[in-house]
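Incident log, structure service

09:12 report received: a user says their structure output differs between two submissions of the same chain.
09:20 pulled the input from the user's history:
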Amino acid sequence: MRIASKAFIAIALSSIATAPLSADEFPGRRPIELTVMFGAGSAADVTARRLADGMAKDLNATIPVINRTGAGGALGYGYVSRQQPDGHSMVWNSNSISTTYHMGLLSFDYTAFDPVARVSVETPVIVVRADAPWKTLPQLLDHAKKNPGELRVGNSGTGSHTHFAATALFIKSGGKVIDVPFGDGQAPINLLASRIEAIVQLPAAVVGQVQSGEFRVLAALGSKRDPIFPDAPTAQELGYDVALDMWRGIAVPKGTPKPVIATLQNAIRRTVESPEFKQAGETLGFTPAYLPADAFADLIASDDRKLAQLMAQLGMKKNTTSGAATE
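09:34 re-ran on a clean worker, output below:
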């Protein structure tokens, strides 16, 4: 009888330990893991860690940031999609959920996740050396039209947001260039060395060289001027229909309870609206841009439709169906 009683007690204690928390008890003592699809030390990684630190203080929780890189983000998205929908696994989401899926690198689309909140926006910019002959974007694009295949334009890698923005710009403007994809941080180095004539990058990658006078920003390729480079016009202002903001935010596996999402969302809002996070944006080259879960969901769906259509026009779309996670 004593053996049976001990076994019963052990089973009962085990059940209590593994029972899911109620929404009121979340997050409890378990860590809330944040998966980042970029390498440690990258601008995206540093921003995610600033967010995690703020959320951890707000929730009185431990939020480790884990870098799961590879396959254009597919490895990180795949990992989080398979986790329990209990709020303890988050992904540092971006437009890449759509571009990676439509390029055929993911077997599921954005509907595999529940959006929690948008955190920030970054504006891709097109940049040349300060001693380049082109002072404006129209001058560069006119040269690309008159001299097809002469200009070499660098980006952050095949399938990256900067690759997509650069491709869209030159196709829509009618210019023909040599597309040169690099790894993280390599495009500015190669522009400095005059191995290429222009680059499309996110602001954090070029702000130092612009401020030092080595680079010139010709235009922003987002919906608004970038606050770090307020004097640079948008491509739309100059008559080119390209507006590809890079947003980042937090998403969780599909089916996460709404009260848990609300708890995470409120912690994100308080962190993003804090003076410390705004200062980090000025330093790291992003704009804090909080959106709650519902508005973020609408943005993701709208962007997915636009990206799918544009990628099809550019010949970059491989997947033709949408669906939840199958991994």
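09:41 both user submissions now match this output. Likely a transient worker issue. Closing.
09:42 reviewer note: The chain has two domains: 19-122+247-313, 125-220. The CA atoms of residues 142 and 267 lie 48 Å apart.
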